[in-house]
Write a structure and sequence with these properties.
It is built from 2 helices and 32 strands. By secondary structure, it is mainly beta. The protein has 3 domains: 98 residues, Leucine-rich repeat, LRR (right-handed beta-alpha superhelix), CATH 3.80.10; 112 residues, Alpha-Beta Horseshoe (Leucine-rich repeat, LRR (right-handed beta-alpha superhelix)); 173 residues, Alpha-Beta Horseshoe (Leucine-rich repeat, LRR (right-handed beta-alpha superhelix)), CATH 3.80.10. The strands form 9 sheets. Strands 19-21-23-25-27-29 form a 6-stranded parallel β-sheet. The longest helix has 9 residues. The N and C termini lie far apart (100 Å).
Length: 405
């Protein structure tokens, strides 16, 4: 009726048989979610008196293709036509529906319309891209960021599942956590020289990412930064790092070789779990290898240096191709299940003979591991007590130990 000036939010929520709606003059506001998920709705006639169209007013109206009188509405929220595939892009192209939302001074990009398709160029004057601005924009394939932008916030490009190319200018200094999370089609990423820290879970689930380029001066890589980058073939860890944080390279299925920098002291939980590492060099600085750090990696042989004091629970469990492990002459701690379920492991060599080996260090392996250590050593006593085959090591001219011929 013409006397109707206002209706409530959610008033027609999920009306499955509603196909057409018409409002007489007098209505000034259509609030948030008014026709949310009216999946049969095809045509709406709005009055000339309408001045405001609220957030998600027609969200999920997948059949909506005809809308009248909208040109005179003063304020249309950016997500008013979210998931309206037959209408949203048409309204953006005519300028009725905003493709993006800026702060009042134009320096912050706050939100991009989820229905935007193709290439998106951020307007000049933007300095900061705020939290989740592009999150869930599944139809965008390319993004161009202009010079002058200095900050990319948390989760900005998260779940842009069709994003294939992004241009980041040299002015960018900071990138937030999960910035590119689940950008599954992104194959290459270049970070500017000014970015000195790779944040937590930055590329989590970027399953097609093959190559990433960044400054050698990067001083930190956050937990899970490349977790699930199953196409990543190579990676150079910055020299300045002192630790590899949890799950940083977990499930990097094509990563076959890595060099741990000379300053790293600890490799944390699950750092390389489910990767395809076949070769690794441990630095003298390394002191601790934590829980599941290299679980399910296809190493064939491992050699530990003097600095490693502790190999924690399941650190190398389920390494199905591992045949030989050589420990250092130092007093290392080998925890329970640290080499559990390694079916091809044949020899564990302890040149020093003083390692502290947990009872279940080599558990759940179908083959019997032969323990090699100096005769009369603490390790020999442990092996005989636990029922492991034992082979004494021979003394060499320089005072070291080697396997008997």
């Amino acid at each position: 009726p013409g006397s109707l000036q206002k209706i409530g939010s959610w008033i027609f929520f999920k009306c499955p048989n509603l196909e057409e709606a018409e409002f007489a003059d007098g209505l000034t506001e259509l609030p948030a979610d008014a026709f949310h998920e009216c999946t049969a709705l095809k045509k709406v006639t709005l009055p000339q008196s309408l001045k405001y169209l609220g957030s998600s007013a027609f969200e999920g109206c997948t059949q909506l293709s005809e809308l009248s009188a909208i040109a005179d509405i003063v304020n249309v929220e950016i997500d008013a036509f979210k998931n309206c595939p037959l209408l949203a892009n048409k309204l953006m192209h005519t300028g009725i529906l905003k493709p993006f939302e800026l702060s009042a001074d134009g320096t912050q990009l706050r939100k991009v319309n989820l229905e935007f398709e193709g290439k998106f160029t951020i307007p000049d004057g933007v300095v900061r891209i705020t939290w989740s601005a592009f999150k869930g924009c599944r139809k965008i394939t390319e993004i161009v960021i202009p010079e002058g932008v200095t900050e990319i916030g948390d989760q900005v490009f998260s779940d842009c599942s069709q994003l294939r190319k992004i241009t980041i200018p040299s002015s960018v200094e900071q990138i937030g956590t999960r910035a590119f999370q689940r950008c599954r089609e992104l194959e290459e990423l270049t970070l500017p020289e000014k970015v000195k820290g790779i944040p937590e879970e930055m590329c989590l689930g970027c399953s097609h990412l093959r190559k990433i380029t960044f400054s050698p001066d990067v001083h930190s890589i956050g937990s899970g930064a490349f977790h699930g980058c199953s196409s990543l073939e190579s990676f150079t860890i910055p020299e300045s790092l002192t630790e590899i944080l949890p799950e940083t390279f977990r499930n990097c299925r094509k990563l076959t070789e890595i060099v741990i920098p000379p300053q790293v002291e600890i490799i944390h939980r699950g750092a390389f779990e489910y990767s395809s590492l076949q070769k690794i060099t441990f630095p003298e600085s390394l002191k601790t290898i934590e829980l599941s750090a290299f679980r399910y990696c296809p190493f064939t042989e491992l050699t530990f240096n003097e600095g490693i004091g502790q190999i924690m629970c399941q650190a190398f469990a389920n390494c199905s191709e591992l045949r030989k492990v050589t420990f250092s002459s130092a007093d290392q701690v080998v925890s329970d299940s640290s080499f559990a379920a390694c079916p091809k492991l044949e020899k564990a060599i302890f040149p020093g003979g003083n390692a502290d080996i947990s009872a279940l260090a080599f558990c759940d392996s179908p083959s019997v591991v032969t323990i090699c250590a100096p005769k009369g050593s603490k390790v020999e006593e442990w092996a005989k007590k636990k029922g492991f085959p034992f082979e004494p090591l021979e003394n060499t001219e320089d005072g070291t130990q080697k396997e008997a011929k």
